[in-house]
Write a structure and sequence with these properties.
Number of helices: 11
Number of domains: 2
Distance between the termini: 42 Å
Number of strands: 10
Low-confidence stretches: none
Order of helices and strands: EHEHEHHEHEHEHEHEHEHEH
Structural class: alpha/beta
Largest sheet: 5 strands, parallel
Length: 283
Amino acid sequence: MTISKVSAMVSTSWLKHQIQSTARSTNISSHLRVLDTSMVPGENSYKEYFQQGHIPTAVFFDLDKMSQAKKNSSIGFPIPDPNIFQDYVEDLGISNHTHVVAYDRFNIRTSLRTWFLFRLFGHAQVSVLDGGMRKWVSDGNPVTTEEINLEPGEFDVKFQSHLLKDYKSMVENTKTNKEQVLDARGAKGYEKGHIPGAKNIPYASLFNEDGTMRTPTELKKLFDDAGINLDKEVTSSCQLGFTACGLMAAAHILGKENVPLYNGSFHEWEALSNPDMISKTAA
């Protein structure tokens, strides 16, 4: 099943217009839901960030709550249970027709992870605010501490299994080389150890100084320079399954819509693999 393409990134001006249109209606529209995905593990991100100020009409999306690592698991941030995800997003007033726009106030890692999760659960109408909260504020747009009342949504999960890779399939790929593997970690981390055959496109290289994503031409050059052919199969990875979603979004912008995520990423690979299954690059 192929997920139809919508814009992976939306601008602050686009979102401002949509919010203004919503404000003119008599109630909060279920056709647009803005999610503040700001998260610092171990902190009460709702209290420390969302309640201190957020984009008008936004609601808090608690990634940490849904991604608690299981005891003795090698996966740092597991995929939420589909039923838990469904109940949670319905409580936020999200239905299958809702256009979800995710943002955060740091470096849009968590909003990109949210973008991936919605697509994994079959929701095509999801975008990321380009530049996040930082760009929203720098463009002179308002923030608020007001929290909105929501009517429950109706959200049916349609799990897209082809968007997810596990450790076993990644081990098999080192033998077949069927899929190109991307690594979104910084160059130093990649050089110290990576999945055999993985190519490095550091997450930070995807963005301009203001936090917005680079142009399609610039993104294409990053993939080309890394030796990645987007006409062939690609899997994305990183350390914990967050920044890899940035490479997936960049590929989506370039027309490669269904790049899967190795969710365990190098955190799991390093924990489970023998030393000969960890490649290193000389400095």
